[in-house]
């Protein structure tokens, strides 16, 4: 279990990691103003670089990954993360959750309500009547406290009692680190003063062909996900609490499958926004979840986590291309990202490890997960990058 337990963590001890060749620096990303006092607030950017010329950048607004640069098989370095260059752009486009830490609770909560020990709490709804990714002002919209600890960055956020309707004062700590093995490590810990639900994840949009390469290169990606089931949802994407078999369906990615091939064979499939139930042992930590390859660049991304599910999303809600609207300027929705590049539908993908979505409304079908006072919520995510020559 990811929370509601008092066992030490990780269960099998920390994984060995190489950081001797990694450098870490911090500088000013942008300056904004406090909403209440009007005083200036500095948004800090942290930048890692390892001995393989891989670079990772984060900011303390939303504990957000804003860039990952890495070479391809020919040595050409590209940024493979969609994002922006200024704080204002992140805050204005917050509905897309670019690179952000999601909380208190990732994914959807039906009818914006949760019941704990017989008491029902009404949550703030941002997709009425339901809640998505923490509500109107989730963790992705907070400026986290942050500091450097050796070669990792520690970010902290205090979510007060009844924040977005959730019970309990919650303290969240995020630990972020790049290794010389081209792994970016994320570790979340959370503590609460009352029984509550915490379900954190990261919502980075990747495109291994380059952040500005759009759907043309995304369709050249091959996806493998270690799952036999997905979480069943109704017609408006609210989980039913049951799992659905994916054998002989377009969602079966146990064997590597090209995205272009999948969409071509299934024209009614508008994209992926599905929660995969990962195949793993009961006490297995750091389980393999997914592998994504982009043969044209030779770049590969693997995802590992201690969480039971993985949300796979192909940026279906980003603006549609001008060709889709036949150039009608009245229908165009322009989203300008880094380097002045436009981002469109299917321009990136997210792989977000998390607990079962809407589990609070299906407690009879899921293991215990309530975070009680004195317990520790613990979540690890490992993004491993490989270059295949």
UniProtKB/TrEMBL annotation:
Q: What GO MF annotations does this protein's record show?
A: aldose 1-epimerase activity
Q: What is the reaction catalyzed? A: alpha-D-galactose = beta-D-galactose; alpha-D-glucose = beta-D-glucose
Coiled coil located at which positions?
A: none
- Give, as in the UniProt entry, the pathway in which the protein acts: Carbohydrate metabolism; galactose metabolism; Carbohydrate metabolism; hexose metabolism
* Keyword Isomerase found: yes
Organism lineage reads as:
Eukaryota, Metazoa, Ecdysozoa, Arthropoda, Hexapoda
- Which Gene3D superfamilies is this protein grouped with? 2.70.98.10
Report the EC code(s) recorded for this entry: 5.1.3.3
For this UniProt record, give its keywords in alphabetical order, as a comma-separated list.
Carbohydrate metabolism, Isomerase
Q: Which family is annotated? A: Belongs to the aldose epimerase family.
Which PROSITE patterns does the record associate with it?
A: ALDOSE_1_EPIMERASE (PS00545)
Where do the segments described as Disordered lie? 1-20
Isomerase among the record's keywords?
yes
* Residues annotated to bind beta-D-galactose: 107-108, 203-205, 273
UniProt-recorded name of the protein? Aldose 1-epimerase
This chain's function reads: Mutarotase that catalyzes the interconversion of beta-D-galactose and alpha-D-galactose during galactose metabolism. Beta-D-galactose is metabolized in the liver into glucose 1-phosphate, the primary metabolic fuel, by the action of four enzymes that constitute the Leloir pathway: GALM, GALK1 (galactokinase), GALT (galactose-1-phosphate uridylyltransferase) and GALE (UDP-galactose-4'-epimerase). Involved in the maintenance of the equilibrium between the beta- and alpha-anomers of galactose, therefore ensuring a sufficient supply of the alpha-anomer for GALK1.
Q: Which residues cross the membrane?
A: none
């Amino acid at each position: 279990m990811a929370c509601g337990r008092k066992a030490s963590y990780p269960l099998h001890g920390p994984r060995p990691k190489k950081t001797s060749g990694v450098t870490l620096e911090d500088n000013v990303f942008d300056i904004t103003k406090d909403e209440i006092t009007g005083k200036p607030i500095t948004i800090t950017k942290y930048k890692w670089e390892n001995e393989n010329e891989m670079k990772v950048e984060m900011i303390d607004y939303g504990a957000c990954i804003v860039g990952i640069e890495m070479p391809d098989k020919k040595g050409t370095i590209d940024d493979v993360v969609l994002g922006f260059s200024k704080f204002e752009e992140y805050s204005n486009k917050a509905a897309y959750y670019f690179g952000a830490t999601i909380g208190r609770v990732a994914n959807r909560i039906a009818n914006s309500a949760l019941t704990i020990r017989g008491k029902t709490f009404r949550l703030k709804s941002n997709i009425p009547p339901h809640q998505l990714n923490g509500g109107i002002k989730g963790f992705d919209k907070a400026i986290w406290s942050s500091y450097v600890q050796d070669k990792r960055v520690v970010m902290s956020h205090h979510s007060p009692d009844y924040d977005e309707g959730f019970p309990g004062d919650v303290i969240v700590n995020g630990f972020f680190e790049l290794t010389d093995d081209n792994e970016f490590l994320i570790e979340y810990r959370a503590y609460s003063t009352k029984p509550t639900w915490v379900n954190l994840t990261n919502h980075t949009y990747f495109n291994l062909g380059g952040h500005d390469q759009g759907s043309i290169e995304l369709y050249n990606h091959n996806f493998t996900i270690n799952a036999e089931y997905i979480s069943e949802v109704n017609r408006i994407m609210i989980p039913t609490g049951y799992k659905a078999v994916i054998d002989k369906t377009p969602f079966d990615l146990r064997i590597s499958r090209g995205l272009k091939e999948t969409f071509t064979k299934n024209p009614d499939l508008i994209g992926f926004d599905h929660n995969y139930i990962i195949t793993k042992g009961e006490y297995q930590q750091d389980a393999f979840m997914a592998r994504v390859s982009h043969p044209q660049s030779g770049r590969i991304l693997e995802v590992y986590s201690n969480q039971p599910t993985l949300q796979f999303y192909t940026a279906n809600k980003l603006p549609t291309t001008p060709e889709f609207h036949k150039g009608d300027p009245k229908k165009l929705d322009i989203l300008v990202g880094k380097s002045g590049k436009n981002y469109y539908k299917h321009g990136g993908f997210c792989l977000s490890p998390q607990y079962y979505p809407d589990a609070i409304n299906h407690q009879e079908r899921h293991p215990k997960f309530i975070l009680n006072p004195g317990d520790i919520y613990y979540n690890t995510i490992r993004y491993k990058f490989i270059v295949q020559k």
